[in-house]
Each structure stands twice: as structure tokens, then as C-alpha cells.
Amino acid sequence: MGAEAAIVRVQCFSGTHAIACALYGVLRPGDELLGVSGAPYDTLEEVIGLRGRTEDGLRGSLADFGVSYRQVELAEGGLFDLSAIAAAVKPSTRMLHVQRSCGYAWRPSIPVEEIGRLAAWLADAHPSIVLFVDNCYGEFVEAREPCAVGAHLVAGSLIKNPGGTLAPSGGYIAGRADLVAAASRRLSAPGVEGGATLGMNRLLFQGLFHAPQVVGEAIKGAHLVAHVMGALGYTCNPAAGAPRTDIVQAVRLGERDKVLTFCQAVQRCSPVGAHIRPIAGVTPGYGDEVVFADGTFIDGSTLELSADGPLREPFAVYLQGGTHWTHWVIVLREALRSIAELGGGVEALYAEEESDEPAAAFKRYAGRRTLRNK
């Protein structure tokens, strides 16, 4: 990670948990957390205190501990608005929060080079402020990680990229040694920052060893999805052929039923729980109805292959992972057939004419035999 220190713990049960430990480790009553990449991921809203159960007064949130929060939107093109950030910084601002991945927002994910630009500005203008990066979905996609370009602290989940689909649980926090130590004490207790590994060390190390290979397959799958869905007229983020800084591929389907249909097709093509039919529902940590398709060997392992999305405008589905890029061929074939049955306007996909551009795009990646079989 290019960091001074790190903790890797199976006791971190999610990326949000690891992020929360990092935030609580640094922030104190009267401090301000300033988001500089727009709104945080949905599950962090309750950690911050932006949303939650009002009957208990948002007990345990940063707001409950007297930590305030404001945010600055990204500039056009998904870059940091340094002038707006400079104007927003106050004497109480203790930490800048960056969400590297787009999450459920329709924006570009943030390249490591751009995080380096922010870090260089911060080191010159406000050297006492901590730069924290939510690194979920971004690990090993680029040649460098945020700490290598000046971020002070990063956190993420082992059931995403760095677990290589083998880690059954866990998360990591990496960065400046004193900040990592502070975060570890929020995970456990001062003086007892260790913790049982529960016999999982082999899986964590082997998962880390496999992680770059699996991330590479996930990126290939994301490119395939963007090429095929883009050729069919759906807006994709990132677009086909665009540079990547995380494994998330978003496709704007435009209709609630299409999001549900797509996720149900992903579940039918999954190695685990293929008989399950995902439906929209209220999930802890999310403010809107969400649908999840994740028929994975490790529950919630989005690096294996998953699709999800909130049931709100612009009705986009967010795709992650894939241990083999060819799995996305199977998923696309099933999903597009299901959307066609909805009247989704993809009938041209099944045309035999070489001149048909959507069909040609699909043939180029999936092969003529696959096309004819469907």
C-alpha cells in the first residue's frame, strides 16, 4: 500500500466497519470531517450521523460524539475543486474524506494521480489536516495506491479486492503509523490492539496473493459489459475503453424493472443460490430500497461477481467483480434475453446480419456460437 503501517483484521466485518474505525480513531469532539468528493457511500451516512434511527438520537454516530460534517462537490469531470475546498476548510477541519469509487453516485471514480494532486495541495496549505481515502473497490487496479501519493490513511474490505475472493471476512487500515495505531484502538482497546486470527491467516495471505489476478479478470469483465451495453445504447460509467481506477461498472438502465431483471439474471447465473430471486427491499445502512445479486461463495464478496443498485433515479445497476471474465459473457447473454422479454429494445442483438452494430459488438466478445444458442 506504500504506507508506514497497516492492520489487517478478520474482526473488521465490512469495509464500512474498517472505515468507521479509521474515522473514530482520528476524530474528536469539536472536529470537522470535510467530504471533498461529494456525498459519501450510503452505508457511511449513519456512521457520520446524516441519517439513521431518530428514536435513539443517532446514538454512536460521529455527530453524537460532537464531530460535524460538511461536503464539497467534485468539479466538472470528476476532479477535486481545490478552490472550493480551500474556501470550505475551517480551523475545526481535522480530516478530508475522499471516496475513491463512485459508489452509487453517477460520477467518475477518482484516479490515484488526482488524489496525489489533492495531497500535494493539502501538504502545502494545511499540513495538519489528515487526508483519508475510502479505498474500497480500487485496490490493485492502478500501479500505485493512495498512500504512495500522499494520502495519510486508507481503509477497505477483504471481501472486495485485496481478499482475492478467498478471505472469508475482514478489513484493513493502512497509512501513517500513528493514525493506524489510533484506528486499531477503536477496533479493539488501548493496549490490546491484537486479536485472534481464528485460523484464517492462510486464506488472508493466499487471497492477497491471488488478488491482482482476480482484479484483472474483474476489469476485463467490466470492459466487456461497457462495450456490449454501450453498443446497445445504454450509458455506461466508465464508458467502453475509458481508463479504470476501480472495478465498478455502472450501467444506466433507466427503469426500475430493468434493474430488477438484470440483477435477477445475475443471480440465476451465480454458482451459489442460483435459485434465489432477488427483490427490492430495505437493507440496514441504505436509505433507499436496494436490490442485491451476489450468489457468491463468500457472503457479500463483491469481487467474485455481483450486481446491485438502489431503486431510484437514474435506475442504474452497479456491477463488480468476476473471477473469470467469461462469466460476464454468460451473465450478459441471460440478462439481455430477460430485458428483451420486457420489451427492452435489444432484439437487434439476435440478428444475424454482420452489419448490425449491436450484434457485431456482442459477437466480437461472446462468439457466434453463443449468440446462435440464445
Automatic annotation (TrEMBL):
Out of the domains of life, which is the source? Eukaryota
What Gene3D superfamilies does this protein map onto?
Methioning gamme-lyase, C-terminal domain, Type I PLP-dependent aspartate aminotransferase-like (Major domain)
SUPFAM superfamilies on file: PLP-dependent transferases (SSF53383)
What is the recorded name of this protein? Aluminum resistance family protein
